[in-house]
Structure prediction request, 218 residues.
Amino acid sequence: MAISKEQIAQRIAKELKNNTYVNLGIGIPTLVANFVPKGINVEFQSENGVLGMGPFPKENEIDPDMINAGKQTITTLPGAAIFDSTLSFAMIRGKHIGLTVLGAMEVSQSGDIANWKIPGKMVKGMGGAMDLVASADNIIVAMMHTNKKGKSKLLKKCSLPITGVKCVKKIVTNLAVIDVTPQGFLLLERAPGVSVEEIKSATQGKLIVKSQTPEMNI
Prediction:
């Protein structure tokens, strides 16, 4: 069966490397801070000007003045720094972020990402997404494999306005873990109980399948 948003975040947390700066985008990516593996030291950054974010606060820990870029209340870890967005984007554009985890509405088989605008719908702006995808060495997308109508979000070519071109390295969905390669989507793992055929039918782009595809270890 398909995994939950929390389990997507939990699987992505296994990709965290020790002593790195990590940016978590709005939505599913913010949950990654709740699942940092033991022995791994990472500094989570938010483009509104926070370095050293912790997990989401419990009810008695909520401080309405402490928020991330998605206006969600956050906790901060000992040694955290608060600064303005100018310095935050200097950090991003200076390529000091080792990993960026983003949500997406569409990803193409060549690694293009569309995650900021649906034509005809009002948006406040692109935010920091364009800077993040242009600057990070490693970009992982956390998303649902299909939209609410059941149509694939892993496409041959994005139909929505592009945020970044050929930048996504890995995708973790409710159905699978997938690498983006020059040849197309490479299936690495499948959600527990989900068959390869189910993943194929939910993927519009080219999907490369090895002879054996293990289940995710969550």
Observations:
- The domain at 5-209 is CATH 3.40.1080.10 (Glutaconate Coenzyme A-transferase).
